Hints:
Layout: E1 2-5, H1 11-21, E2 47-50, E3 56-68, E4 74-85, H2 94-108, E5 113-117, E6 130-131, E7 134-141, E8 168-173, H3 178-191, H4 200-205, E9 218-223, E10 229-238, E11 241-249, H5 252-263, E12 270-276, H6 282-285, E13 292-299, E14 301-305, H7 308-314, E15 321-329, H8 330-333, E16 339-348, E17 351-356, E18 363-366, H9 367-373, H10 380-385, E19 390-391, H11 396-404
Amino acid sequence: MEIRPTTDKDLDVFVDTLHAAFGDFPQTPADGGGGLWWSALETDRCLLALTPDGRPIGTAGAYSFELTLPGGTLAPAAGVSFVGVLPSHRRRGVLSAMMRHQLDGLRARGEYLSVLLASEFPIYGRFGYGPATYTRQLTVARGQAAFALPRARGTAGSDTGSDALTGSVELLRSSECGEILEEVYDRYRRARPGALSRPRRWWDLRAGQPPIAPTPRHIALHRDADGVPDGYASYWVDSGILKVDETIATDDAVVTALARFVLGHDLVTRVEFKHFPPEHPLRWQLADFRAGQVSDDTDWLWVRLLDVPRALTARGWFADGELVLDVDDPFLGGPSSAERGRYLLTVRNGKADCVPTDREPDLSLDVRDLGSVYLGGTAPSTLVRAGHIHAHHPDAAALADTLFRSDRAPHCLHWF
C-alpha cells in the first residue's frame, strides 16, 4: 500500500473516494465549487491511500486552524477531517497506517496540536485523541419560555421589572450579512477557549454548515448601544419548530437578548438551541427551570498533543504549582518502543515551564487523556475516578484539577 500527498489534480479522485467510503455521492459543484461542505479542503494537506496497482482505497486530510487556548492564546492546530476507508478494505490496517503517516507529517511540519470531530467515539482514542469540549441541545417549549425576574441587586431589570437589555436586535438574512457574521464570529472565537478559527477561505467559498453555507437562514443580529454588531443567532423555522444553528456572542447578556428574541417568535411550538454551551445560565434565567430540556449531550472537539512541552507551555494557567506527568504515547512510539515522556510542569504567574525529569510522577496518563484535560473541559480527577489516569498520591488529582482548570469552560461550535 502507498500513502501519498495529493495535488489539485487528485481533487476529483479524493472526493469520490471519500464519498464512496461513506456510501454517498458528491454533490454537483456550483458557483465554481463553492457552497459544498468540502470545497475549502487544502489539497496539500490531504493524503490518498492506494493499492499496489494504484487504486484509491482511503483518504485523510487536515485544515489549517487556530485554536483558542485557556488564557486567550491562539495556537495553530491541524483540523483532521476527510478520513475514510472503502468498505472493501476495512479491517486491514489502512486507517492506522494513514493516521500514523498523517501524525508523523504534522510533527515534521512543526505542529504540536491536532484536533478533530469524531464520527464514532471508539475510533480515535487509539490514535491519541481525547474528547476535550462538549456540547448539547437545549429545547424550550414556547409556552413555557417566560423569564424569571433577576434577584441580584444591580442586575438589569431587577429593580424595574423590565426585560430590556442594552442594545437592539435586527433581523437579516444570512445572504445579506456574511462579512458581519465573519467579523462577529472572529471576535467570539478569540475570546472562547476551545473555539476554532473560520478562515476567510471558508466564508468566500460558503463551505461548511449554516450560516457559512448558502442554505437560507434568518439572522438575529445584536448591536450594542453604539450600533456595533456584537452577537448573532442563526435560525430557521421548520414545521413550527424554531431551530437555532448557533448563537455567537462574547457576553452572556447578549446571548440572553438573542434567546429572548427567538423565544418570543410567534407561531412556533418550541425553540431548539443547537450547540448550547453546557455551563450557560439560560435554564436558570427561565421562570421554570424544567422548561429547558437538555438532549444530545455529547463530545465535540477532540484534541491530540504532538509535542507535550510545547503544548503545555502554550496555554495560559490560573494557579501556581508543580506536577510531574508520566505521559504514554503508544501509537506514535510503537509496541516495542512505546514513546513515554516524564515531564515536570511548573506554573508561575500564569506561565508554564515543562521539561523532562526523572522525578517520581504525580500522575501517569495516556496522551489521549492529556488531550481531554488540556483545555480545562475535563477534570483530571474525573479520569482518575474512571480508572484512566493513575494518581500516585492522594493529593495528585486535586492538584491537577487546580492547575488544569480554565478561565472559562471550553466550547467549540465550528463543524469541519
